[in-house]
Amino acid sequence: MEKLSVALISGLIPKNIFDPYSFVFDEAIRLAKRGLDIHAIRTFTEIESSSFDIHYYGIHSSFGLSYVSFFVKHWGSFPRASFLLPPWQLLYLSKYAQTVSNVIHKNSLQIIHAHFAYPEGFVGLLAKREMRRPLVVTVHGTDILVEPSIGYGVRLNKKYDAMVRSVLEGADCIIAASNATYDEALRIATDAKKVRLIPNGVDTSRFNESLDASDLRRQLGIENQFVVFSLRAHEPKYGLEYLIRAAQIVINHRLNVVFVIAGDGFLRQYHEKLAEELGIRKNIIFTGKIASEDVPFYYALSDLVVVPSLQEAFGLVVSEAMACGKVVIGSNVGGICDQIIDGYNGFLVEPRNFEKIAEKILWAISNSEELKEMGMAGRRIVEQKFNIERRVDAIIEIYNDLIGK
């Protein structure tokens, strides 16, 4: 029986588990383990290679006349608004799409799967029209959702909005991980039947409630503290400022609490300075970026996890924490509210409401038995709804349906 073969368009997909974490890699490696022939085309300049049974390709660093010819051939696929983009950007998209088309032709690939509607999805749309292969597009957040207050989402720019709309109209299947992204995709795509809601998933063996983080607690010097953990980049959309402001309220009531904030980003210095100004710097550990293999142990060392995002397409950190048996306080935005049942396995608070975050943390400190029960409930929800193997099953089913058609 012929293997299912896929051209996977993902600009930043890593080659191994030691590279920066990527949910796309988690998905791709499982597809390869199921026997699918996965060919990932990245935006790097690189030679053809293989890793974890995934074939990798890059794009050439130079521009050639063939890319201009490809653009001329497919200029009708570009929405009118896109011609306001710099010419080099339009040629780059053509160059990337021609590279994808060459990989498809060379390896007789059956399916095109692009992660993010732009730019990868538009590249996939051009390759679809060149090679006549079905196109699957997974939307992830910044490509489809917008939050004007923090400048979140490519569709705030009308040129990119037009391109995203053309991609969702031209795709054969659109995968959305949350109700928020699903509903927005339905508003754009005229054919509702091709939009599929398939939640993101975690590896429930890697993230589990029996992990021992006692060594890590000793290393950080927090053995006898109540630990509140957050794993988010220091960027406006993740709302870490409001967690820090909540921490001040909590620490004014409880001295045996420490906040561990993992991640890096351009706002980190601002957040550290804010903690100093609020007089709580000694109660917050800013770890910086942590290795992907260490992430489960940081969940394990925590007593409570907070995800204070202002926008979140899905929020895989919520499922990861729940898989480790941890209660999550999360903002009532995007995909977070798909995962947290308020008062059952966690708490939902309105974004920016640091007083409410503090209130829920103080409740958790005083109700350890209820916290354990809620953590167990969260683990059960992940096993039932947010297991990555279930997601992979659904994606393979989509591939087979498209090939059958």
Notable characteristics:
alpha/beta, Rossmann fold, 8-stranded mixed sheet, 6-stranded parallel sheet, 16% strand, elongated
Give an account of the 3D structure:
With 405 residues, the protein is α/β, with parallel strands linked by helices. It has two domains: 5-201 and 387-404, Glycogen Phosphorylase B (Rossmann fold, 3-Layer(aba) Sandwich), CATH 3.40.50.2000; 214-385, Rossmann fold. Helix content is 44%, strand content 16%. The chain is built from 15 helices and 14 strands. The chain has helices at residues 23-33, 65-73, 87-107, 117-131, 158-170, 179-188, 214-220, 240-253, 268-277, 295-301, 316-323, 336-339, 354-366, 368-385, 388-404; strands at 5-9, 37-41, 49-51, 54-57, 111-115, 135-139, 173-176, 195-197, 226-231, 257-262, 284-288, 304-307, 328-331, 346-349. The strands form two sheets. Strands 3-4-2-1-5-6-7-8 form an eight-stranded mixed beta sheet, sandwiched between helices. A six-stranded parallel beta sheet has the order 11-10-9-12-13-14, with helices on both faces. α11 (316-323) crosses α14 (368-385). It is elongated.
The biggest beta sheet, please? Answer: 8 strands, mixed
Number of domains: 2
In N-to-C order, the SSE pattern is: EHEEEHHEHEHEHEHEHEHEHEHEHEHHH
- Helicity level: 40-55%
| Average pLDDT over all residues | 94
What would CATH call the class of the largest domain?
A: Alpha Beta
Q: How many beta strands in the DSSP annotation?
A: 14
The low-pLDDT segments are none
Helix/strand structural class? alpha/beta
CATH architecture of the largest domain: 3-Layer(aba) Sandwich
The span between the termini is 18 Å
- State the helix count: 15
Q: What is the CATH homologous superfamily assignment of the largest domain?
A: Glycogen Phosphorylase B
Instruction: Identify the overall geometry.
Output: elongated
From the 3D structure, determine the CATH topology of the largest domain.
Rossmann fold
Work out the radius of gyration: 22 Å
Beta-strand percent range: 15-25%
